[in-house]
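Model the whole thing, not chain by chain.
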Amino acid sequence: MLYREAGDFKTSYHADNQTFPIKFDRIGFWITMAIAFLVIPFVINDYWANAIFVPFLIYAIAAIGLNILTGYCGQVSLGTGGFMAVGAYACYKLMTAFPDVSIVIHIILAGGITAAVGAAFGLPSLRIKGFYLAVATLAAQFFLVWLFNKVSWFYNYSASGQINAPERFVAGVAVTGPNTAPWAQYMICLVFLTVCALIARNLTRGTVGRSWMAIRDMDIAAEIIGVNPLKAKLTAFAVSSFFVGISGALFFSVYLGAVEVGEAFGIQKSFLVLFMIIIGGLGSIFGCFAGAAFLVLLPVALKVLGVDVLGWPTDLVAHLNLVIVGALIMFFLIKEPHGLAQLWRLAKEKLRLWPFPY
Amino acid sequence: MKDTVEPYVTDDGRTIGGVLMDMRNITLRFGGVEAIKDISFDIREGEIRAIIGPNGAGKSSMLNVISGFYNPQEGEVWFRGEKRPQMRPYQVARLGIARTFQNIALFEGMTVLDNIMTGRLTHMKSGMFWQALWAGRAEKEEVENREKVERIIDFLEIQAIRKTPVGRLPYGLKKRVELARALAAEPKLLLLDEPMAGMNVEEKEDMSRFILDVNDEFGTTIALIEHDMGVVMDLSDRVVVMDYGRKIGDGTPDEVRGNQEVIDAYLGVAHD
């Protein structure tokens, strides 16, 4: 019985407040970090980076962003794709306008710009909620995609209407452009994800997070307790969009390299990220990872199993993927609205008493 | 006794101070319906003030006026010697007025501890930057406020359920957690909307004891709405009686009990 709480006493509130209060979790966390930072970069190849790791890391950032807004603050958003596009185009404009500044700063600034745009589109949330707000954010999605298609300033008047990431270096190593090594792509995404996840975790366990959750659970009571609803909702939109913007910037510059907005950041992307947090778990940072991993891995696993092993036609497997995702969404919404994260929590609770549950 | 503003000492040795909150000629309308008609009363520092009346008398509306949820069309609200301008509820909370709800309004998805910590929101000032880093002021503040919250948890004897999500708790405990959340704000004025609704005798006794202890130990002024007459008469220093939006009685429990209009409102009166 490695995993246990018994005997794991806390003698200060500081210790009780930590992210992983159980010792075994802490060990697990450091082992995961060590593998992610010290092992994977040395063994990763092009296929693993492009098919699995890089999209997983980037989608995990987007999922954290959306989860802050939807899972923690209770504001449904279907504009994730549009906000990712803002991040991507902001990053592109910054990269081409200031070629001498580090790409890391550009990505962070792109997040900041997306935060401002997100807060602006969050304004309707002060008046409308639920289904109606979802429609309002859907408008943001279509408007932003239309804007980046229509106004050629955003893609520097290029004939194709695409944006292409020029080659940029971090510490002498190419992280964007055609000559990027898989491990460099992986590392920059991993660093961003780690920082984003830590920030998200810190925000959600403190005062800001509690005001978000108070608004989510009962907005009237929250206001009577002293939560300023305007501030809470707009900060949720801003912080959420910040993360989504960073993921959009990485998606464009590091992962794809060249982007056509309707294709890369269409409504499907909004739904994909929303499905990630529903399957992963609303209101849980771990759930963002679980959901992103699941939805990135599922098509890959199905393809390996269906096409390579069983020899089915590719389109059948692709359709099967859609069917499975749809069925899972329904399953989770009915059976476990808190997703994989809650299943994991329940498993831990059962395990704690195992093998003597009474 | 009512007209004096001199402090006095009650039979059980508590000091009742000057006027904390003064409601002057409050009128509240919803469209054509007058929920509250020209009501004035005051709440003095350190006292337990009850508002009673039959269903639909406008008691909860009155509480909502005090907590800033409704803005009355006419009348003035004076708090600590100053006229209170029109405010949003969260601004009223910052003045030091906390409340509980008739139908429990806890944050169901959060743990008991988080719920009570949310109650301390008005005391936590650290910026988002430090919170994102979980360092500096934010970390220190979290621990300091946790200590205060733990004192309230001890006081209300809910240590065992600290980390339980509120959604899993039984009704009686939820009521207690809600009281804890309101207390965490260290309010000057605590509003309780039917704190004992739906409780059995034992739970009522517990809750009464907590209310008295809060008043006694923290010196918190309490205004409460309650239907259980026995409880009201035992707990409160002064009682306001409302009926159909009007004030029909005001005074000590004994005075109110002898008031003919109050008796009529509660027992009905023969029409001939």
